[in-house]
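Students often ask why we bother predicting the structure of a whole assembly rather than each chain alone. The short answer is interfaces. A chain on its own may look different once its partners are present, and contacts between molecules only exist in the joint model. In this exercise we take two input lines together and write out one structure for the complete complex. Read the inputs first and try to guess which parts will touch.
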Amino acid sequence: RKEVEQDPGPFNVPEGATVAFNCTYSNSASQSFFWYRQDCRKEPKLLMSVYSSGNEDGRFTAQLNRASQYISLLIRDSKLSDSATYLCVVNPNNNNDMRFGAGTRLTVKP
Amino acid sequence: DTEVTQTPKHLVMGMTNKKSLKCEQHMGHRAMYWYKQKAKKPPELMFVYSYEKLSINESVPSRFSPECPNSSLLNLHLHALQPEDSALYLCASTHPAAINSPLHFGNGTRLTVT
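Now the answer. The structure tokens for the assembled complex follow.
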């Protein structure tokens, strides 16, 4: 089983839609979780860290489900500018070993 | 603007060349990373330095040789590469072993091996 698994999509949604991505991890002891956004031919940029109690930043909500070992990212009221690849990152062994999921490609259409 | 600086932005090299990729950060981070990313794939971990010591080597071929001269600099020395090594090489840094300390990425070096 891979350390971090993510549905690669693609997700094609209309503007204004709500879309959710999940990412599962294999090591129950993992402590650090992040969502990154990557635009074509650019470096990944931090979207948000994922905290145990869940956290929200504007239209974006991140949650952690330790019992089922997954993190989620919810995007509300999708904008055209949200089109990108969304990557989850997990530190599975809590030792600087930062692993990426496969990335989920999102396209928001007018 | 990125706080992690990578040079060069683009590099074309032949299979017999020797070249180096450079990465610099001044955020006081003591963990630095090299990732390799092929098109339509996620970044793949290559090496991690923690407090200037190599802590993770993901069985990378010896034609890639990392070096961490000090806490701000990270190099990747390249020798006798193959065309399949063409990719985007990303440097990143973070606070080592700090929960919820994210990776900060440089812009990357786009490498083409001919």
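Check your guess against this: The mean pLDDT of chain B is 94.
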